[in-house]
Amino acid sequence: MARAEWSSAMIPAAFDYIAASSVDEAIEMLQKHGDQAKLLAGGHSLLPLMKLRLAAPGVLVDLGKIEDLRYIRDAGDHLAIGSMTTHYMLESSALVQERVPLLSHAAGMVGDMQVRNRGTIGGSLAHADPASDLPSIVTVLRAGIVARGPRGERLIPADGFFQNTWTSTLYPEEVVTEIRVPYASGRTSSTYQKFRQRAADWAIVGVAVSLTLDNGSVRDAGVVLTNVGSTPVRATAVEEALRGGPSTREALGAAAERAADGLNPPGELKGSPEYKLHLARILTLRALETALSG
Amino acid sequence: MAIESPSPFGQAILRREDRKFITGSGNFVDDIRLPEMAYVAILRSPHGHAAIRSINVAEALALPSVLTVVTGADVKAAGIGAIPCGWTLPDMKVPVHSALATDKVRFQGDAVAAVVADSRAACEDALELIEVDYEVLPAVVDPETAVAGEAPLVHDEIADNISFRWTVSGGDVDAAFRDADRVIEQRLLNQRLIPNAIEPRAAIAQYDEATGDLTLWTSSQIPHLVRLLLALTINHPENHLRVISPDVGGAFGSKLYFYPEEAIVSFLAKRLPGTPVKWVPTRSEDYLTTTHGRDHVDRAAFAVMNDGTITGVRVTTVANLGAYLSTFAPGIPTILFGLMLSGNYKIANIHCEVIGALTNTVMVDAYRGAGRPEATYVVERMIDLVADELGMDPADVRRKNFIGPDEFPYTTPTGVTYDSGKYTDALDKALQTIGYREFRTEQEQARKSGRLLGIGMASYVEICGMAPSQVLGAVGGGAGGWESANVRVHPTGKVTVYSGACWHGQGHDTGFAQIVAGELGVPMEDIEIIHGDTEKVQFGIGTFGSRSSAVGGIAAYLSAQKVKEKARRIAAHLLEAPLEDVVYEDGKCFVQGSPGEAKTLADISLAAYLAHNYPSDLEPGLEETTFYDPSNFTWPFGTHVCSVEVDPDTGTVKILKYLAVDDCGRVINPMLKDGQVHGGIAQGIAQALYEHAVYNAEGALLTGSMVDYAIPGASELPMFQTDETVTPSPVNPLGIKGIGEAGTIGSTACVVNAVLDALKPRGIRHIDMPLSQERVWRALNGAQP
Lengths: 294, 785
Description:
The complex is a heterodimer.
Chain A: E1 16-19, H1 23-33, E2 37-40, H2 46-51, E3 59-62, E4 72-74, E5 78-82, H3 87-92, H4 94-99, H5 101-107, H6 113-118, H7 121-127, H8 134-140, E6 144-149, E7 152-157, H9 158-161, E8 162-164, E9 167-168, E10 175-182, E11 187-195, E12 205-214, E13 217-226, E14 233-234, H10 236-242, H11 249-256, H12 273-293
Parallel strand pairs in A: 1-3, 2-3
Antiparallel strand pairs in A: 4-5, 5-10, 6-7, 6-10, 8-9, 11-12, 12-13, 13-14
Chain B: H1 18-22, E1 38-44, E2 50-56, H2 58-62, E3 66-71, H3 72-77, E4 104-105, E5 111-117, H4 120-129, E6 131-136, H5 143-146, E7 162-170, H6 173-179, E8 182-193, E9 203-208, E10 213-218, H7 223-234, E11 241-244, H8 260-271, E12 277-279, H9 283-289, E13 293-304, E14 310-322, H10 335-338, E15 349-358, H11 372-390, H12 394-401, E16 410-411, E17 417-418, H13 423-434, H14 436-448, E18 452-461, H15 469-474, E19 483-489, E20 495-499, H16 508-520, E21 527-531, H17 548-575, E22 582-585, E23 588-591, E24 599-600, H18 601-610, E25 623-628, E26 637-646, E27 653-663, H19 670-690, E28 720-724, H20 742-758, H21 773-780
Parallel strand pairs in B: 1-12, 10-11, 14-15, 20-21, 27-28
Antiparallel strand pairs in B: 1-5, 2-4, 2-6, 3-5, 7-15, 8-13, 9-10, 9-12, 13-14, 16-17, 18-26, 19-20, 19-25, 22-23, 23-24, 26-27
Helix pairs in contact in B: 7-8, 11-12, 11-20, 16-17, 17-18, 19-20
């Protein structure tokens, strides 16, 4: 993903560092420093940009010391996840594995061990990189993202959260505090197909699928694609083709054929648009078949 | 030579140098911190090709943290010479390579200005303040386009961007092609690779005005050659120059040259006496400025008879050299490639033409294997295409044409002489061990259900132990091919070996100690090896071309023998016995038959340094030096074989089994040997399936980081199985051939052959490397690659 403008520097410009001790303090710092401030929530996306001098915030407000943002809780009808929960915590949590297995499965595929130990779900979502895995996962799970700002707290549905490459609906002075993942009802089976060249790479294309089955038919279907547009892309044609139809291989196959409908994916060294369209279809088929047999 | 059982030679001994590396106690250039040290950063051209209209450094210079800023004009004014090329071919045109660009930049990363500041970060701030007014010029990055006659000129004075046209011919090639039953042709791309040493290049220079001594620490494979070339370039007396290669974190050939930055930091240190200056590039900077490897377009034609006999080979190659000629660049695609096109085979008629192309890319030079992986790829891909065309098993075509075990020494039609080999043995062992026949049966079954299974092999022979000096000189090499070693026995019997070889992580400290300990009969821990410092070690050539053991190791062995000889003479005196009756065994001298009255090496050494009771016709002291110049190269060989499965839906290749049967002559340490083979295979598979350094048409490196340049890791690679045959080299007394590059040479063609074998039912003849997921998918779908 040769996105960077050319630069061989790996030494960031000078910046101030503030370790916020609470969300309120972080918001205060964002208000105080305005454009100059950036939140640090793990750093695996922001720091490389700074080292390349593509980002040069004057103040880094680190959320890493706010222990209150690091939790995974059973909240009755949903899983409540603190925004500073690391990928590794999601991957290894028995609660996540039991209640939202797709999330732990996908978190285990993010980057490498070092990234998973430092990177956080809140940081990943706020960064809004369409090549990242978790934006697709929270979208297919119809999660909600809790953001707090000077005017209080609001819950943003994942479906409307991602606006463009590296752009979300967050206001500049807001901090993501929690992710709420609703529990599935009925017999739901989900999976994530991440197609990459090397284990630690970003997806060339990824497909997250969630199927709710009911007596040989598909009651509900969620299909969201990674890295085929400027945001996670919901494959509505596939979902519509599946919903209410039979849960047979033939039906899944016919639906998967529509996975590339309307897509206009960006090309990159590891995958041309043409190849990505093909991958969208084949990976959707594989994901649906896996979900069906799971 | 009889090796006694207690000798460590041949034993799998853990690398004794690893303790310091795995505990973080190594001493790499970046670990060195000198008092008053300042930092250097270099402003690099963002363009592939541009004229420099003006450079304004005033703002950068005004920063309080900045000590100095220099440009090409300063370098020129100081009389710093051009960066030299150390290999000369007939009628070769050598472009001028200024350490800092003056009028033009010719590749992305070309050095434009250098800043010295009191911190690394301050350097970067200063670089941002330098204003360069560029007039961007059209660039050419593809070697074939560069020499086609219409391309922009990289250097105005070099017509058609052609540095050289080199040909070699043996036999009657025209007749062979005229009389052939069939001619098989294929255009093969050997793509550009980035060597990726774990430690990027780095250098520190320090100048002492009072003594006139200039010291350069540099991450290099060739400290003595760097000192020589630096002396000539910056016009500093060689006896006041000290070059130190401390611990070096890998190189793969990329640190085998004299680089502009070594001249730049030396120049800066002399400008700032008392202020040592350190340059440590980032990985991205290293990608842009450290030599790349391979980058050939090879057009091959094989003349064959219907029974599989290969009668003629014709290869025309355009080799990308980059924007300037790196130190050994001209030798790699010519001598180390063109002379290796006979492979393991008896082919009477061979012709090769190589065009050296200048382009707007970073310099291309040796990368692990250096010419031999390219040649092996051509020969071994073509053998498979021959087999395909004739409907023969690829193993049978190889067997049919192998040079027989009794035909050595074998001189190829292009004039190199292979030392020894049993090529069929290695092939048979490889196929038997992997279960070739059984796999063919399994493959047939799998194909019926649409699965794409394949098996591929590659046999190789390589030219190693670079050496002998006269031959190297005759083919244009600008360095000797010998190596030096001094074995010094201290008065207490402890031993220091000073080796002119200069390793960078391969394990020589252990291997060389095994050789000397085995010869002197003393414990390995009594032997210390010093290398990499021109002030400690006598002149040496360095480490490359799998030469350290076969040349440097032999030099140490010969010095140890001389020490033993002198020890016997001293012992004969001490024991009052005739010399011919005194034997040296297990670190002791005694009169044959009376081992009870022995003099240990320590006894003898003490006597040698005291010289109180000593032979009158012998000089005191106990140390010996050898400058060993071998009589021939050494010629390791082997066969690699692997099986693969291709996913027809996505084009993903999975390697199922990988087996290497290598013959590197006698093995000093099987564990070190396996380590070399493993790493080599990983890099060879990387070329076959993953890696490709890509420039766009303007000369911007698109694969400028490890995100885009796809180095495979453990998750992508299969288990490697290694095996061996042992055919000692007659060239040297230990029978050593060398193993540093074999893994890279055998594996690339082996994997590509396996994938193409898998794709055979789909009618696919060839795919150019890397066989990435999309390329294979496109071939399967009949799309343009």
